[in-house]
Amino acid sequence: xxxxxxxxxxxxxxxxxxxxxxxxxxxxxxxxxxxxxxxxxxxxxxxxxxxxxxxxxxxxxxxxxxxxxxxxxxxxxxxxxxxxxxxxxxxxxxxxxxxxxxxxxxxxxxxxxxxxxxxxxxxxxxxxxxxxxxxxxxxxxxxxxxxxxxxxxxxxxxxxxxxxxxxxxxxxxxxxxxxxxxxxxxxxxxxxxxxxxxxxxxxxxxxxxxxxxxxxxxxxxxxxxxxxxxxxxxxxxxxxxxxxxxxxxxxxxxxxxxxxxxxxxxxxxxxxxxxxxxxxxxxxxxxxxxxxxxxxxxxxxxxxxxxxxxxxxxxxxxxxxxxxxxxxxxxxxxxxxxxxxxxxxxxxxxxxxxxxxxxxxxxxxxxxxxxxxxxxxxxxxxxxxxxxxxxxxxxxxxxxxxxxxxxxxxxxxxxxxxxxxxxxxxxxxxxxxxxxxxxxxxxxxxxxxxxxxxxxxx
Length: 458
What we know:
This protein is an alpha/beta fold. The protein has 5 domains: 113 residues, NAD(P)-binding Rossmann-like Domain (Rossmann fold); 32 residues, Double Stranded RNA Binding Domain (2-Layer Sandwich); 53 residues, no CATH class; 114 residues, Cobalt-precorrin-4 Transmethylase, domain 1 (3-Layer(aba) Sandwich), CATH 3.40.1010; 121 residues, Methyltransferase, Cobalt-precorrin-4 Transmethylase, Domain 2 (2-Layer Sandwich). Helix content is 34%, strand content 19%. It is built from 15 helices and 17 strands. A 5-stranded parallel β-sheet has the order 3-2-1-4-5, with helices on both faces. α3 links the parallel β4 and β5. It starts with 13 loop residues before the first strand and ends with a helix.
């Protein structure tokens, strides 16, 4: 983040604009919406700007810029076409610690206004720090198209109700959940028409119904294999709603960035042999916080029902009669194999695919080895990196060809993805030389050979 986003209250406060042409006019039109006291300093002024100042009771001072003209405004806008003058305005503003925006000269700005979407009190600003203003404008156009004009009325309506809701719902957390439910309800559709605004009774009925609800709930969410763009829309929606998030080691930092900013974050660990919180404690945690009326996000890498202990957690929630939702995620096998260019099934190579975990309760890898040696089958092993030596040795002992292709993928689907391809006989040494670390997925089968022609990601 190069610039910190901030909104400033300039209502009835002094703002100085230096320049009297069309550039200054555009800025004054925008500033006027926030009702400041505007003073324009310029040797000349365009007709439209002059009319606008009169309409908004602004002031025009006809003169060239001088340092003494800057008293103590809340903001300064420099809108001249003279670089030397703009630099001088910037110097003076910095000297007096006054926020300054020099139009179209980002290096001479201590603040920028960005591209703005406005629905009365609802304002959204987009900035690229001056690096890509056209992109910011295009994003603004997209957002403009999806936010109804009726939201202006909605925002003002809600503003009148805030004190009532605050008085009647004492808990700040419950108030936030109430408003989220309000904005997601069909209630707000009444604002689509000026002739169909909701009555006091409409809101009273809605309020009573929502206040009686118990909002405590658990969201069991699969975050996918690592790349944030592979999250489901449902996952993202619930990640933004939670009060507290308990997450595993396999959830990427990029995905965690999308969790509601002020949610409490709890790390559960779940690296092999490094369980920061035991499974029983996690189950107790989910139940306890949900019963306190909190919305608890249980965020897991991949899919919660594929080696994610989602079933164990749901059993506990059902036992204690706690409401929950389950959101599937793209599994590590599906996502990582796709990004590695290795199809898990292929009519010439594999008609079946078997998912296995290399992590057992007793710490030892213990498969029914003979049942894994099947022609035209792909094996996918989760959490098997530390057991790679035992895995390859036992497969060889039980009849798998030492030349069987095998791939080990670290940080699959992310920009840090590494793919090591070898054979049963040499993969361990290759992985060691490449210093592959967890999280890593192992794929065994002739489908691995297809990576040579299907590798699209790297």
